[in-house]
């Protein structure tokens, strides 16, 4: 069975469990996963025995090339109207839709286009399939991670005081693209000095200065799949405080890498790293969760946080990214991507982690 | 009155016309426009006499810096639940929400959080404000356009047969960033040879060859605002057919630039360019609309197409981008961004348009 056929078969099992005759897939990411289509306008209807793929006529050539395992349909109307035009739900009574993706306006249009059908809000169906990566997905992700690793190695040779954060970001994006990435997984984070205290700081006009630590958080996209890598380096020299905070974060990160395995409650993994940071007296500084699932989405299941109810599954790829943030001083974060198995995990990113002073 | 105060005042006029006591703004782009906030999680509630801004605690520092004209509120809950926690609708009976942005799931949560309120689906309220650019917006857009113009000039010195399309895309992104762009307005389109027949082709692994035409369509982002520039160049030599098609597209584009002015029905402007292409015998090859509004969104009102009911307004920025696409052969598109006024328009992009053979 083809990659896409296999995914659709797994989805149908979920539909049957929920007594749904069909799922209307409007997330473009999920459409990509289920059909191979990468355009910007399209939807799929997966019924018990058919897969309909709908787009507009701009995508005729691209759909013919990419979508081989679904019936390709075209419409000049909004896609949800096109579904009616092509009778995509003709044998369905209860159809699920992605209620966390479909807008209220689209929902009204759907209801208007099919006044007699029963529509059931769902969320997390395709996300459940995404939890376990197949070989093709892992190959794309490994490629993305190799690219980010290489770019980090390059950065160590070019980073220097006097550069602007957004110059560094431009180098990251450019080098990832040159190495074969389709683009950035997200806008690179380059946070130097006290800006390092903002976990989500985008690169700014700020100039890197001697004595600062710089957090670099970036990723590449390959075949729609992502890498996500963070390293923190020091410029010129590092203070005692910087060195201590770095060693606490690294210890927490290594402990989590050591502990992570399928079958474990995700919150227990968060606790492994958090305990070390709390015990070192920096608990208030670790203001986010330990990690997250990674794949076609930058953030996907499982949640790896103190509040998560997820259990880690074999075949999931997750990030392990503890950090300590001190307002007015700065921050340190170290992040790798790992593949979980029943006996442990494989660390997929390989950039070095000893504290570097540039 | 501040820039944001002014925008909120204009929005309130629209709310009053629709007898709404409030608008719940969940589009992050619109949130940026109304409050200045650029983070990835937030919403605003604009009532007749207050503006509430809600986000989570990660954005405490950023919100304090960016959001000066709204009451800043923070929540650990989903934002729509946080609205109830902070009593944002306490004096409102009829509240509008952005039904083309809010998901069905969010809508259910909103209803659950405020069981006694009346929620009215709206769309296009903030979009209506975006139609007319103020000076600050135009300054950002002009900066983005100067960056794209400069990068096109650079490309003319580096483009050569043997480069891959995605190498060219990497150069575009890098150079825009180095010139001060926050990032790309969209993934650059680099479509060479027969790929030029796909109006939305992303850059691929394909190698540029002598005798091909290459369509370059890219833009920069500055302060969240976009430029959008397309040029088509020839490599090595150009066929008679290529030269003819180029001259038809250029003639159509210049005619539209000549005709565009505020007060004109947008479809009449589309017709000016389309007539020239149809008369030259290439009508089937011009498979998209003439242009679109441009600003915080890459595509916004007005629609500039044969089916548009919009009338062009003074202060709108639109693209003028006719093209001809021939399956199996390739395509030509030429695009500028213009600012409309009552007497005509100002062309904001200035990259040269004579056919270049590199």
Write the topology of this structure.
The structure is a homodimer of 358-residue chains.
Chain A: H1 3-17, E1 22-25, H2 28-35, E2 43-47, E3 51-55, H3 60-66, E4 71-74, H4 79-85, E5 94-98, H5 104-113, E6 118-122, H6 125-130, H7 135-158, H8 165-178, E7 183-184, E8 189-192, E9 213-218, E10 220-222, E11 225-226, E12 229-234, H9 240-259, H10 266-279, E13 291-293, E14 300-304, E15 317-320, E16 323-326, E17 330-333, E18 336-341, E19 344-347
Parallel strand pairs in A: 1-5, 3-4, 5-6
Antiparallel strand pairs in A: 1-2, 2-3, 7-10, 8-9, 9-12, 10-11, 13-14, 15-18, 16-17, 18-19
Number of helices, where a helix is a run of at least 4 consecutive DSSP H or I residues of chain A: 10
Averaging pLDDT over every residue of chain A, what do you get? 96
Task: Please provide the ordered H/E string of secondary-structure elements of chain A.
Answer: HEHEEHEHEHEHHHEEEEEEHHEEEEEEE
Can you tell me the residue ranges of chain A where pLDDT is under 50 for at least 5 consecutive residues? none
Helix content of chain A: 25-40%
User: Which fold name is given in CATH as the topology of the largest domain in chain A?
Assistant: Creatine Amidinohydrolase
Instruction: Label the overall shape of chain A.
Output: elongated
The separation of the N and C termini of chain A measures 51 Å
What is the chains' assembly state?
Answer: homodimer
Whole-number radius of gyration of chain A? 23 Å
Name of the CATH first level of the largest domain in chain A: Alpha Beta
Provide the spatial order of strands within the biggest beta sheet of chain A. 4-3-2-1-5-6
Largest interface: A-B, 40 and 39 residues
Q: Note the beta-strand portion of chain A.
A: 15-25%
Largest sheet of chain A: 6 strands, mixed
Question: Which class do the helix and strand fractions of chain A yield?
Answer: alpha+beta
Total domains of chain A: 2
CATH architecture assignment of the largest domain in chain A: Alpha-Beta Complex
């Amino acid at each position: 069975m083809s990659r896409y056929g296999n995914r659709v078969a797994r989805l149908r099992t979920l539909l049957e469990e929920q007594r749904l005759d069909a799922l209307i897939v409007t997330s473009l990411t999920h459409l990509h996963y289920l059909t191979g289509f990468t355009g910007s306008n399209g939807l799929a209807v997966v019924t018990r025995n058919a897969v309909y793929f709908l787009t507009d006529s701009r995508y005729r050539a691209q759909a013919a090339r990419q979508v081989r395992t679904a019936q390709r349909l075209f419409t000049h109307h909004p896609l949800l109207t096109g579904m009616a035009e092509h009778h995509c739900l003709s044998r369905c009574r209860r159809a699920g839709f992605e209620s966390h993706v479909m807008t209220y306006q689209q929902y009204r249009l759907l209801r208007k286009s099919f006044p007699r059908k029963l529509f059931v809000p769902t969320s997390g169906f395709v996300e459940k399939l995404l939890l376990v990566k197949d070989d093709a997905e892992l190959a794309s992700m490994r490629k993305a991670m190799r690219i980010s690793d290489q770019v980090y190695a390059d950065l160590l040779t070019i980073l220097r005081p006097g550069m602007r954060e957004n110059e560094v970001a431009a180098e990251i994006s450019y080098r990832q693209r040159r190495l074969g990435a389709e683009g950035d997984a997200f806008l690179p984070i380059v946070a130097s000095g006290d800006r390092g205290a903002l976990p989500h700081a985008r690169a700014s006009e700020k100039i890197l200065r001697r004595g600062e630590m710089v957090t670099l958080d970036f990723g590449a996209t390959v075949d729609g799949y992502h890498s996500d890598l963070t390293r923190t380096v020091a410029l010129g020299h590092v203070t005692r405080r910087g060195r201590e905070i770095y060693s606490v974060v690294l210890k927490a990160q290594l402990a989590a890498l050591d502990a992570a395995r399928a079958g474990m409650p995700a919150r227990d993994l968060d606790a492994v790293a958090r305990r070390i940071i709390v015990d070192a007296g920096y608990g208030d500084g670790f203001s986010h969760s330990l990690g997250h699932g990674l794949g076609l989405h930058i953030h996907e299941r499982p949640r790896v946080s103190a509040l998560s109810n997820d259990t880690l599954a074999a075949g999931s790829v997750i990030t392990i990214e503890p950090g300590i943030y001190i307002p007015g001083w700065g921050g340190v974060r170290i992040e790798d991507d790992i593949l979980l198995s029943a006996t442990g995990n494989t660390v997929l990113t390989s950039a070095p982690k000893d504290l570097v002073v540039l």
